[in-house]
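sorry for the late reply, my laptop died twice this morning and i had to redo everyting from scratch. anyway the thing you sent over, i finally got around to it. pasting the sequence first so we're on the same page, its 110 residues, then the predicted structure underneath. double check i copied it right bc i was rushing
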Amino acid sequence: SGRLEERTVQLGGKNAPDYLIKKFRTSQATGGGQQGGNLFNVELVKTLRIQLTSQPLSWVKEFLARGGPTLLIDGLLQTYLTPDHPQQRILMTEWLRATQAFTNNTIGLQ
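ok and here's the structure:
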């Protein structure tokens, strides 16, 4: 079972923790056409939340190792600091739900 979980993380493609984190960070660094870039992409934040609730613990460990908690904090902070964003309320809810999903598993609590 452990080998299958490891393989899932490695072969996750667009659902791999590394891919998602890079997707957020790349757009953030380049501006992504808007302030905060993909930190303000509701669908991408939802995808992250879903992955945090549905993937095996190995996925969450990889997310932790790749700086995932910092991403969660950045997303919450940037959303909070941008009250005039048209989707601010939805984004804040999704970032909070993603953070909750992370902290509700044994890896996130450690």
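Residues 1-11 have pLDDT under 50 and may be disordered.
thats about all i looked at so far, will dig more tmrw
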